[in-house]
Amino acid sequence: NAIYRAGVLGRKPAVPTSFDQLERAAKRVMSPKAWAYVHGGAGLGGTMRANREAFDRWQIVPRVLRDVSSRDTGVELFGRSLPSPVLLAPVGAAELAHPGADVAIASAAAELGVPYIFSSQGCAPMEESAAAMGDSPRWYQLYWSTDDDLVDSFLARAEAIEADAVVVTLDTTMLGWRPEDLDLGSLPFAQGQGIAQYTSDPVFLRIVRERIAAAAESAPVEVTLGAVKSLLSMTKRYPGRFLDNIRSPEPRAAVETFLDIYSRPSLGWADIESLRERTSLPVLLKGVLHPDDARRAIDAGVGGLVVSNHGGRQVDGSISALDALVDIAEAVDGRIPLVLDSGIRSGADVFKAIALGASAVTLGRPHLYGFALGGRDGVRDVTANLLAEFDLTMGLSGLTSVAEIDRSALRRA
Ligand code: FNR
Question: Is residue 52 classed exposed, middle or buried when 0-12, 13-18 and 19+ CB atoms within 10 A define those classes?
Fold first, then answer.
């Protein structure tokens, strides 16, 4: 309503309300490297396209002459009342898009009461992001390290910052084949972006120190020009924090340790089952696309699933997230909440995902494009626009609450 009124008064919104314009405007302000990393998908981009095409295959069938003068977009998720069924997806290395990540994104989310899922590969320690959110809900996303002590340390920190849930991302045991990044010859982590959860972790720092000590024993220290350059750029990037944490040697060792241990490709169901003893927080598995995996996850005791193909960044030619949601909703049959992630670009998309069985959705690239354009307020505006469009779509379809949105509101095109 406020957005419309501003328009009537001739005020232009700070960020474009159309996704295409938003994306184009963001591209103009981002460096080629940031654009490649944020926008890029796996392989030929087929999964990214499939994510969008799936939404186009479903059409909303609005109803009329129902009193829609008062509406409520609120939902309850893991015992929390949320203003809408929308969360901000975890995004690593977001400071490539704009300085101040992840604290600025957290603060924008908190202004709207929208939960932000802190990435394992965030640019600020989760404690700093949480501090920017007051009592607003936050979740934590875990990449399962090869080092179990580090996993436990991350889980303990997530509990300490009062995260409502832990999301374990399973589709990124290895980084996908992403030609846009590969051709530029640069991935963010090489410069130290996206490792702040690690460099602020006592277990991680212990591992780095042990590795440095072991290396010093077995080989004389070799000072290369590259190592010196990387040390200098780290000092600039993390004034105080990084060097305080690491002390003396060696940011480079931290980056190398991170690359070696951040992910465990051998992860199995037994590890997921062990989470029940490791944390009291509800656990969601992110990246589940097959109904058999969804059933298996319920047996393993997880609290929810994030149906996602990582925004088309991992397996090219994979099933769209929305198509997977339809199959998984049938298999799960309401036993645990499903969160749809990948391809959400508008309020109408949120409506369709809810109608097809999602309890909530997460927003990835759109909020990062807002961040690139307008920093903290850009994130807030993009998200607020999407929430406003969702509320309108619901009302104009003849519905007044999220619980009323079901399959009967859609037809297959
Ligand atoms: C991501 N994503 C992601 N997921 C995750 O679990 N941990 C992470 O650190 C990241 N990092 C990340 C960085 C960037 C730049 C992007 C674009 C995405 C995936 C993200 O959580 C989400 O699954 C997708 O972005 C959803 O798809 P859309 O909304 O971008 O289409």
Answer: middle
Would residue 367 show up in a list of annotated catalytic residues for this protein? no
* 263 C-beta closer than 6 A to ligand 1: no
Measured by CA distance, the residue closest to atom 9 of ligand 1 is 92
What is the complex's ipTM, to 2 decimals? 1.00
Q: Which of 154, 171, 174, 169 shows the shortest CA–CA distance to 302?
A: 169
Q: Ligand 1, from 193, 285, 313: best to mutate by most atoms within 8 Å of Cβ?
A: 313
Q: Is 309 in the pocket of ligand 1 (CB under 6 A)?
A: no
Beta strands in 163-298 (DSSP E): 166-169, 283-288
What letter does residue 336 receive in the DSSP assignment? S
Q: What is the pLDDT of residue 227?
A: 62
How many angstroms separate the CA atoms of 213 and 74, rounded?
A: 53
Exposed / middle / buried, residue 11 (Cβ in 10 Å: 0-12, 13-18, 19+)? exposed
- Is the distance from CB of 81 to CB of 104 less than 8 angstroms? no
The helix, strand and coil proportions of the chain, stated in percent and rounded to the nearest 5, come to 50, 10, 40
Pairing, β 304-307 against β 338-341: parallel
357 lines ligand 1 (CB under 6 A): no
Is 318 among the annotated ligand-binding positions?
no
Encode pLDDT of 50-87 as tens digits: 999 999 999 999 999 999 999 999 999 999 999 999 99
Torsion of CA 328, 331, 337, 339, to 10 degrees: 0
Strand, helix or coil for residue 249: coil
Helices of type H across 16-102: 19-29, 32-39, 46-56
Q: What percentage of the chain carries pLDDT values higher than 90?
A: 82
pLDDT digits (tens, 9 = 90+) for 100-109: 999 999 999 9
- DSSP summary character for residue 72: B
H or E stretch covering 341: strand 338-341
**What's residue 187's pLDDT?**
75
Of 170, 173, 338, the residue nearest 269 (C-alpha) = 170
The confidence score (pLDDT) of residue 229 equals 62
